[in-house]
Design a protein that fits this description.
The complex is a heterodimer. Chain A is an all-alpha fold. Chain A is about 75% helix and about 0% strand. Chain B has a 3-stranded mixed sheet. The chains are: A mainly alpha, B mainly alpha.
């Protein structure tokens, strides 16, 4: 082989990563503005962010069929990455509608919030579009470091610091594990490319298994799978609520993306191990999440545990390493990103009511004082519970379907138990809101933007549930494509 | 099953109209709410009656008014609506009882706050119920099946009596969790269709072709059965029912007892027997005896109640026992009995709950002791109650007579002992109803407790008449109703015997 072939110079295909570039530039603009101006106007920061993200989003939507690889295969743009990125950017834009009022009320979002948001979004977008372990590692760091700081933004609040600190330590461990795993995978196959690693067929597979276990454990900590979840409730509770919403939606999509890229590559030789290992983790996760959520008195913490439980349901679909499982999982992930985010955003608005501490009793008679919020929250909760015709129901039905496809009846039955337990706490909130009388307090008065965003999200929960093909028609070819790799 | 396309979209219209009414109620003022609800549910009822003219009774085994829109082609998930004789009967029962419930609510003193929500929930229930009985896509069926839960949960929890929150919780949790088994069952047979025929399908007609082995079939049968046994309910699973029915407002109890319970029995007949005929035959003795045990236990529970609403609720459980026992006899008489009893019980239970609600409005008590002899001051009401009571008891000429009589006939086709066992169940169910009638009519009112009773009139009288007249029709002209479902029964029996060719297990 000649030297010329070894060192092929590839010109980066700019068109493939324009959205990332836009987000990166937006982030740097915000960063420099924050450096220059002592008190950066929040309206300005929000406008710049929204403009930047909208441009990226429009580019993505108009070039949705863009495919290709660049940077020597480090960076992949396919329908999977485009789909997830569209959702991530969209949800980030929606989130920005809520930050201004939250800042006015709590004074806990500073200039760094906006560029950290941009950088974590960038990290998430890269996570969704790479097979390369090194790039995944860097993107993981980008997302995580932003999240540590974002969690700690509630200055002067003890729980915020506690959450951020726990997140930092466990997150650091996760990163270490993931990089360790990446090294093992490199030893095994001599490549950092996951496609290459998982298709590589060496007689001795011990390094492959070891590497995958470490790598996935790292991701599992980030996602909040149960034996590694301890940071999650504290971080979610401590973080400013819009950031919790962000972590539970965009963060979840970002951290699940590499797992979903690995899932179709699972080989025949360790398929059963995969099913057993991931299935067991899934069962532990949703059972634990649901049982612990049941006894929470703080609604934000309860939703955090419900987020853990939902990771469990997603993992249950992941354990069925087949195309139908992947379809179910992508559907579930995107559905959860909407409903989870809506749940936390409603809290973010409600926190502006007088005397509000996110306690269960604060929700007494919410229907009478703040009817609009109560209805939106009820739709989010019903969707989280999986009552038809919301999108949450269809997502769960698809996971059940993939479990039936994989003949994993034990996970199916245990999932019924998990969902059954979850009925208790979702329903309790609805009962409190609609069937109890509450004390009188100052009401939150959502702004027009906030109202519009909430209506949009609640409506999309119903619409995607009634007309599933709107999402399915994108998901189905995507997962087939990932399986052909 | 053959399909007859719709000439006019009766069924989709019956689903959409109440939703339209719901939207109007939400956006218009509160004072219009009850009238909008009345008009829209009345319109749907009229629509269902008009559709009678277009229903071809000579081909009642075919699915008529069939319309279908594909949602996801890959999974064969579609919105497909249509009605064969059985569905059609249930569809008419639904529109009738929903209309009755709204008629009743208009003059119900219990319903005096949050009217917009109340009527909106009722219209949503009606829409979902029509969907349950007429959809032929299993997942869509499940969506409607679950959708009935939410409005009823709110109705019980907001407008119910003292223990309403507890009852609403219990109702929702029991039904929701048990339905999850159904969901697992539905997706499993859709996947099984893929294994056998190479494509996923949720269409009932496709799923009829699936074949199952004993163990797997039994497992799937149980997944379906758990959900429907709780919904029906059969005795050890019935504990949610007295609470939910007892604490719901009158109209809520009417809809719950008259239609929501029928969802369970309808689905047992349609899915458990239709999709798993072999397993149904295999489990027949157990299920029949279970049904009979359910009748007897529920009758005993009934007699011991002191709250008249819980009394009526428990009597529903015992009636459902007849439906289940009759159904799993798997012969013509048994199936006829079962479907007749479903329809008849829909009418009698609606009437009995209205009776309880009516007396409560006068006396502000559900206590049996307080009701003693109270009825004698209201002649019209007394007559209506008497007709209902004797119909429910199964007196010849009463609507429940056919259910009970045909169950006994069906049982006698197997052995005389079984027939006697059913007869024993029928005996107990007569006992509690006689006890209720005795309390109402024959006991003497205590001195000093005499209040002025106004007789039933206006909307409430209309509501009563709307169920009492069909009740008499069922009792006196049963052949009118056999015309709806006899063809379906023949079809079902043919399918069962076809599935048994070559022995129960090859």
């Amino acid at each position: 082989m000649e030297m010329k072939d070894l060192i092929q110079i590839e010109i980066p295909k700019l068109a493939l990563f324009v959205p990332e570039l836009i987000v990166l530039i937006t982030g740097f603009v915000l960063f420099s503005l924050d450096l220059i101006y002592k008190r950066l106007s929040h309206t300005l920061a929000i406008s710049i962010s929204v403009i930047g993200y909208t441009l990226a989003l429009l580019y993505l939507i108009f070039n949705f069929d863009l495919r290709g690889e660049t940077f020597y295969g480090l960076y992949v743009r396919d329908s999977f990455s485009s789909l997830l990125q569209v959702f991530m950017i969209l949800l980030t834009i929606i989130l920005l509608a809520f930050t201004l009022q939250y800042q006015r009320f709590k004074r806990s979002l500073y200039g760094e919030f906006y560029y950290l948001l941009a950088f974590s979004l960038l990290g998430g977008m890269v996570l969704a579009s790479s097979y390369n372990l090194l790039l995944i590692y860097i993107a993981l760091e980008a997302v995580s470091v932003s999240f540590y700081i974002l969690t700690a933004l509630q200055r002067g609040d003890f729980t915020s610091k506690e959450g951020a600190f726990k997140y930092l330590i466990l997150g650091g461990l996760a990163i270490a594990l993931a990089s360790y795993g990446a090294v093992f995978l490199y030893i095994y196959a001599g490549s950092f490319d996951l496609r290459h690693v998982l298709h590589f067929n060496a007689p001795d597979k011990s390094f492959l298994i070891l590497g995958l276990v470490f790598f996935l454990f790292g991701l599992a900590i980030k996602i909040g799978v149960v034996p590694f979840h301890f940071w999650l409730p504290d971080a979610y509770q401590g973080a400013p609520t819009p950031i919790t919403a962000y972590m539970s939606s965009v963060g979840k999509i970002a951290f699940f993306a590499p797992v979903l890229r690995v899932m179709p590559l699972v080989q025949e030789s360790f398929h059963n191990t995969w099913v057993l290992a991931v299935g067991t983790l899934a069962v532990i996760t949703f059972l634990y999440g649901n049982f612990v959520a049941l006894v929470q008195k703080d609604v934000k913490r309860m939703l955090a545990y419900s987020s853990i439980a939902h990771s469990g349901y997603i993992l249950a679909g992941v354990s069925v390493a087949s195309a139908i499982g992947l379809k179910a999982v992508i559907y579930f992930l995107l559905a959860y990103s909407i409903m989870g985010m809506l749940g936390f955003l409603v809290l973010a608005v409600l926190e502006r009511s007088g005397n509000w501490e996110n306690k269960l009793e604060d929700f007494d008679g919410l229907k009478h004082s703040q009817g609009f919020m109560a209805w939106v929250f009820a739709i989010a909760l019903l969707s989280l519970l999986g009552v038809p015709p919301t999108v949450g129901f269809l997502a769960k039905a698809l996971v059940f379907m993939s479990l039936a496809y994989g003949k994993l009846w034990w996970i199916g039955i245990l999932m019924i138990v998990g969902i059954g337990v979850s009925t208790g706490y979702y329903l309790r909130l609805i009962v409190l809101m609609f069937m109890k009388e509450g004390e009188r307090r100052a009401i939150a008065n959502p702004t027009g933007f906030e109202k519009a965003s909430m209506v949009l999200m609640a409506a999309s929960l119903l619409i995607l549930g009634i007309l599933p093909m709107l999402l399915w028609n994108y998901i189905s070819p995507t997962s087939e494509m990932l399986f052909r790799r | 099953m053959e399909l007859v396309p719709a000439v006019f979209p009766f069924i989709p219209l019956s689903i959409v109209l109440p939703l339209l009414g719901m939207v109007l109620i939400v956006f218009l003022e509160e004072k219009f709410a009850k009238w909008i609800a009345l008009v829209f549910s009345g319109a749907v009822f009229v629509l269902s009656l008009v559709s009678l003219l277009y229903f071809d009774f000579s081909q009642a085994q075919k699915v008529q008014f069939y319309q279908s829109i594909t949602l996801i082609k890959e999974l064969n998930l579609s919105l497909s609506f249509g009605a064969d004789g059985l569905s059609y009967l249930m569809y008419i029962l639904t529109t009738l009882v929903s209309f009755v419930a709204i008629c009743w609510s208009i003059r119900d003193h219990q319903i005096n706050h949050r009217l917009k929500e109340y009527y909106a929930w009722f219209l949503l229930t009606e829409s979902a119920l029509v969907g349950v009985f007429t959809s032929w896509d299993m997942l869509v069926f499940y969506v409607f099946y679950e959708l009935t839960l939410v409005p009823m949960f709110f109705v019980i929890g907001i407008w119910g009596y003292k223990l309403r929150l507890y009852s609403a919780y219990k109702f929702f949790v029991y039904i929701f969790v048990s339905s999850l088994f159904l969901l697992l069952g539905i997706v499993s047979i859709a996947v099984e269709h893929y294994r056998q025929f190479g494509k996923f399908s949720f269409s009932y007609f496709d799923l009829l072709q699936n074949q199952y082995g004993l163990a797997f079939g039994l497992f799937l049968f149980l997944l379906f059965f758990i959900a429907f046994a709780v919904k029906t309910p059969i005795v050890p699973f019935h504990t949610w029912l007295p609470d939910a029915h007892g604490e719901a407002p009158t109209a809520g109890s009417v809809v719950l007892a008259a239609i929501l319970l029928k969802m369970g029995t309808y689905a047992l007949l349609r899915f458990n027997i239709g999709l798993f005929p072999k397993i149904a035959v295999f489990l027949m003795p157990v299920l029949v005896l279970w049904g009979i045990a359910s009748i007897i236990f529920a009758s005993w529970f009934t007699i011991s109640q002191s709250n008249v609403k819980r009394f009526v609720a428990y009597s529903s459980v015992s009636h459902m026992g007849f439906v289940v026992a009759g159904m799993f006899l798997l012969n013509k008489e048994g199936l006829r009995a079962s479907i007749m009893e479903m329809f008849a019980h829909g009418l009698t239970s609606a009437s009995l709950f209205m009776m309880a609600g009516f007396i409560y409005n006068r006396l502000h008590s559900f206590n049996m002791q307080a009701l003693r002899g109270s009825i004698r001051f209201m002649p019209v009401f007394a007559v209506l109650t008497a007709i209902t009571g004797f119909s429910s008891m199964g007196l010849p000429g009463g609507s429940s007579f056919w259910g009970k009589f045909l169950t006994i006939m069906g049982a006698k086709e197997y052995t005389l002992q079984l027939a006697l066992l059913v007869l024993a169940g029928a005996f107990f169910s007569v006992l509690y109803m006689l006890y209720l009638l005795k309390t109402l009519y024959l006991d003497v009112k205590e001195e000093g407790r005499l209040v002025h009773f106004t007789d039933v009139r206006g909307f409430k009288l209309v509501a009563f008449l709307l169920v009492v007249v069909p009740m008499l029709m069922v009792g006196l002209l049963p052949f009118l109703f056999f015309a709806f479902f006899d063809a379906h029964i023949d079809f079902l029996l043919a399918m069962i015997s076809k599935s048994l060719e070559g022995g129960l297990w090859k």
